[in-house]
Amino acid sequence: MEWTEVNVKTTNEAVEAISSIFDGLGAVGVKIEDALDFENYRASNPSELFELKDIPHITEGAIISAYYPDSTDIKALVTELKNKVQELKSFGLDIGEASVTTVAVQDDNWATAWKKYYHPVRLTRYLTVKPSWSDYKPVDQDEKVISLDPGMAFGTGTHPTTRLCLQALELYLRGQESVYDVGTGSGVLSIAAKHFGAKEVEAFDVDDVAVQSAQENFDLNPIAKDILVRPNDLLKGISRSVDVIVANILSEVLVPLIPQSKNLLNQNGYLIMSGIIDDKLDLILQTVQENGLKVEEVLYYGEWRGVIATNRRED
């Protein structure tokens, strides 16, 4: 069977948004080649001896590739794709050249080739994410390992926005918390929350495909067996309060989430947010303050920002 590979050359910061566009356009699989993945792998393996040429990688930016069967109207799809990618500029994202190319491929050329780009990566002091097929073992007793089977979509966990949320969960969870993971995607934040001691975790995503992907990853991690995941538009219709709400989504989506979260946080609870490009930070900080929450900390990773807000009472 022949397939068409549709490629978008872009920047690191637009990876997740363009991947989501491909999901919405019915891609059977999505492959991400992100220069940050290689840098993160090299940084997490400083003692490993290797030649750069031995590890397939690009040196800057990112290339997102999606796969469609030969029954797809590729010309119409590419037109819609280009329009949606250009719309990302209105969200403050730098999409780079955003060039779109297509190439015909055979089924056996892409069904497994993407696995060579995906390696175990140490993301925080205590947390490592590994592909499900890897036999990686923890190097010390405090290391937590998350197994992910990204299917045809990979790179999960290595994007700066995800790292910021993981670092915040590591810093602020103390054990026995109840957690909402909004826009869960692969479910990596929910699994991390369990590793860091959360008692109850419930995950939401507006996309049914993401819900299914998250459930598959929960099934790979015994610690995540009791995580509940279901489709939902942010926190609409949710009434039970929790200790922590974590969300790694675009700033424009965080804005309506903040007032929803204010009403669903237990006293002294935390709202952990990422997906915030630098020039949107003031918007998020202002929205936090307008809703009576206190900014506890701002985390930085390149051009990306993470914000931890709380309703903690002042002593």
List the helices and strands and how they pair.
Layout: E1 2-10, H1 15-24, E2 29-34, H2 35-44, E3 62-69, H3 74-87, E4 99-106, H4 107-110, E5 121-122, E6 127-131, E7 144-148, H5 160-172, E8 178-182, H6 188-195, E9 200-205, H7 208-220, E10 228-231, E11 242-248, H8 251-262, E12 265-277, H9 281-290, E13 294-301, E14 304-310
Parallel strand pairs: 6-7, 8-9, 8-11, 9-10, 11-12
Antiparallel strand pairs: 1-3, 1-4, 2-3, 5-6, 12-14, 13-14
Helix pairs in contact: 8-9
Please identify the structural class as seen in this structure. alpha/beta
Number of domains: 2
Can you name the CATH architecture of the largest domain?
3-Layer(aba) Sandwich
- Low-pLDDT runs: 41-55
- SSE string, helix = H, strand = E? EHEHEHEHEEEHEHEHEEHEHEE
Query: How many DSSP H or I helices?
Result: 9
CATH class designation of the largest domain: Alpha Beta
CATH topology of the largest domain: Rossmann fold
Which overall shape is indicated by the principal axes computed on the Cα atoms?
Answer: globular
Walk across the major sheet and give the strand order.
10-9-8-11-12-14-13
Q: What Rg do the Cα atoms give?
A: 19 Å
Give the fraction of residues assigned to helices.
25-40%
Relevant CATH superfamily of the largest domain: Vaccinia Virus protein VP39
Biggest sheet features: 7 strands, mixed
Beta strand count:
14
Query: What's the mean pLDDT score?
Result: 86
Distance between the termini: 66 Å
